[in-house]
Amino acid sequence: MDTSLDAVKRENALALADPEAYWREAAAALDWSTRHGPVFEPMTDPPFGRWFAGWTTNLAANAIDRNLAKGLGAKVAYYWEGENGDRRTVRYAELAKDMHRWATVFLEAGVRPGDRITIYLPMIPELPAAMLASARIGAVHSVVFAGFSEQALAGRIQDSESRLVVTADGGYRRGKVLPLKEIVDRAVRECPSVTRVVTVRRTGRPVDTSPTRDVWFDTERSVAEVSAVPRAGLDPTFILYTSGTTGRPKGVTHGTGGYMVWVHRTMQRVFGVTADDVFWCAADIGWVTGHSYIVYGPLFVGATSVLYEGAPDHPAPDRWWEIVERYRVSILHTSPTAIRAQMRAGERWANGHDLRSLRLLGSVGEAINPAAWHWYRSNIGGNRCPIVDTWWQTETGATMVSAQSGHAFVPEKAGSATLPLPGVDLRVVRPDGSAAAPGERGLVVIDRPWPGEFLGLWNDPGRFRSVYFERFPGRYTAGDFALIDDDGYVWFLGRADEVLKVAGHRLGTIELENALIGNPSVAESAVVGVPDEVKGELPFAVVVLKPGVTPSAELEADLRRRVRDAIGGMAEPESIRFVRQLPKTRSGKIMRRVVAALVRGGEVGDISTLEDDATVEEIRVAASTFREEL
Ligand code: ATP
Ligand code: MG
Known about the structure:
- The chain is α/β, with parallel strands linked by helices.
- The chain has 18 helices and 31 strands.
- It has an eight-stranded mixed beta sheet with strand order 13-12-9-7-8-15-16-24, sandwiched between helices. It has a seven-stranded mixed beta sheet with strand order 6-5-18-17-19-20-21, sandwiched between helices. A four-stranded antiparallel beta sheet has the order 22-23-25-26.
- The structure holds adenosine-5'-triphosphate (ATP) and magnesium ion (MG).
């Protein structure tokens, strides 16, 4: 019998065997201005392929005009909710108007195709509209997460040499106002490329304005429609800096045609959005997940989405569940870190709301611990909603490995991202590049170009080659550690450079963390290796407990037993330290390299994307007492 699994594997093989035909067919679902030449051309140099090089299109035309032409002007594009309780329903026709307003402002400022625009806005409807306007006139947007500091913002404006910065008079986060305009004013002092700052009124608080440089964004202004500039397949659409989990953030640059087709295809396959769905990707647009699954993906398929400005736990931990109930959200896509935070707060917050509108759940950003997976499935999904665990990277443009709900369903296994999507030639290899056997841990490589592949790192071709293409010639090195099981399911186990080498075994950080999180008192944990002459490395664990739980000898003994049972005696942590919080990036990922640096007594490196400095101090104390004991 032909199971879903077989159907998916067959389609995957088809896409790899004849990329030209497969992606030509996928591209036919979208609007193009011209279609000259092949869809795919192999190249001898990284990234080893070019997609839609001779084709022209416009992302904003596909996100907006195409839907208006289908009569979807009155359809809701976004249900927007501000953290302070403000609400707005934005229909496709209204989003179009805002897009034309932004495009007019950009053109008035002299922005030409290829110029960069830095967008530093809270999660308000003006943010997707400004991105679309940038794409419409052929400019390149660089969205900077609105939680970033003045230095981080200035560095990104300088790196991209933006001529225009878009911001707001403030944004709400955890009940406080982010002084975005003040941050921009200070940042641009060191950014000579910036000639114009455009500010949106969000809070109404007074801010300084420069008569020569500043303009307000006028939401009432009526403007003529700005026509969409046809862009070639390889013209850049945006620059986006990576999360900085493993080091200094990289300025990933994405193109036009391939990115569009890839995002569109994954949106269909992974989520299978229908006309009745209310889709909520609860990420921030400042990360690639938000670019592809809050802005471009949902708009390409004419979906209705939720856009929420604030923190998940403001004013209380049930804020998200209230939103799901209010807008009858049917698909919720979020991160393991958010799920663990909800587990920590307790299921009573979700239980107090009617979540029966949900039909599908998604997870992205880190490996999801099986304990969190089961919690999510039963408490949020009512044991009724499948979970699509989606693995990908800023560099890949959109999802690469995931269960699917749109085409043929791939049965889940808790903790595995399941199968590669069509067109993804993902493999796990040994350090010498040979193929790992089923079940054998190794490094993740992608052997063939895929349409959503990034064009490069902005202004940094050397780093582009050295990070991704030097380790295994001819292949893309993802930097992750994983195994593929007998069914072809991919299990991501952590970062390649954070692998633990204990007593001759190579283990992913996730493997030990999963064992620790199996204890219901544990909220989250991070495990790193400390060099040891005898064993190679000793696992060092930091653990965050759920509220009201106090550390005890019994608890520690149980945690040690769990690691022994799940992995083996050699993996038992040398030390388990209980802390209040883990160091994380602003995109919510655990920064294990910070823990590792502190326990090894080295430098913490680039922590420009660290969410909270206090977490470092707490780990520093735990690490120094550990080193004294050694
Ligand atoms: P940097 O590259 O600056 O270190 P980063 O890799 O965290 O930062 P992103 O591009 O935001 O930046 O994240 C991609 C990484 O996130 C992947 O390489 C992988 O390690 C992890 N990841 C994302 N989704 C999943 C998932 N579903 N399962 C396991 N890991 C995931
Ligand atoms: Mg990365």
